């Protein structure tokens, strides 16, 4: 007996994935979302006190206003907003289900899932949209000691690091924000960046703050420097003056993240160029695999600084137009 068949199965229940399901539903299609974590799992793992760099109206999906008393909304406000949007549209979200593999093909995709207890499931869909983002896969440094529990690739809250020696690796926004918050909450912070200065794209209100802290000696900084080893009690740095060892309790490697290229490859999606952009139609976002659409940051390949919620949220409308050209809506088939 064949289980329920969906018109569109969306892998990833972040803001872009939610937008895909919403627009599909608006067009009369039956949609479901599958996510290995919670709704907006990546946002949930952002720093608890994070403030967005953009305004609330640029984060809106589904034509639902995002009211905020702040010029720039917080992480918690965004999570509440997206929960309310999902509830408003009565979205079918299968949380804590990881897509293990995809078999079948256009018109009859078999999506094999595994839940958090290791139980296997099977879902059927006529079309698929992959909106898996990139925040779940950090860029590893590949150095001895990186596997130690003191090394984190995600920054959350500064409180546990009060009075401790903390190394922050990186020179972009995430590294600058982590260094400043850790310092302001009593950690002894050292910043390490492989380039001779902070990245030029550090936000204009953050850059002078971190530079002033460095100039005042409140945050120690090593530029043109690489972290080469982590031990339980120290870190080794390769500086322009030679190898240097520092006492250390924790390391935050804010080295960026990348899309799950392997999952896309397993579905048959091809990539082009050095940036590994997936092959897809510019209008409908259908990939080279017929029936599989791409949405959000994965459309940009490794150039993850090109697509954010602000522009990825419109991908749902493009995919819905592709569905309208290829499928008869569920309501009309009933």
Give the biggest beta sheet. 7 strands, mixed
Proportion of residues in β-strands: 25-35%
- N- and C-termini, Cα separation: 19 Å
Order of helices and strands: EHEHHEEEEEEHEHEEEEEHEEEHHH
Number of helices: 9
Shape: elongated
- The CATH architecture of the largest domain would be 3-Layer(bba) Sandwich
> Remind me, CATH topology of the largest domain?
FAD/NAD(P)-binding domain
CATH C-level category of the largest domain: Alpha Beta
Descriptive overview:
- The strands form 4 sheets. Strands 1, 2, 3, 4, 5, 6 and 17 form a 7-stranded mixed beta sheet that branches. This protein has a 5-stranded parallel beta sheet with strand order 7-14-8-9-10, with helices on one face. A 3-stranded antiparallel beta sheet has the order 11-12-13, with no helix packed on it.
- With 334 residues, the protein is α/β, with parallel strands linked by helices.
- It has 2 domains: 209 residues, 3-Layer(bba) Sandwich (FAD/NAD(P)-binding domain), CATH 3.50.50.60; 103 residues, FAD/NAD(P)-binding domain (3-Layer(bba) Sandwich), CATH 3.50.50.60.
- 23% of the residues lie in helices and 25% in strands.
- It is elongated and about 70 Å long.
- Strand 12 and strand 13 form a beta hairpin.
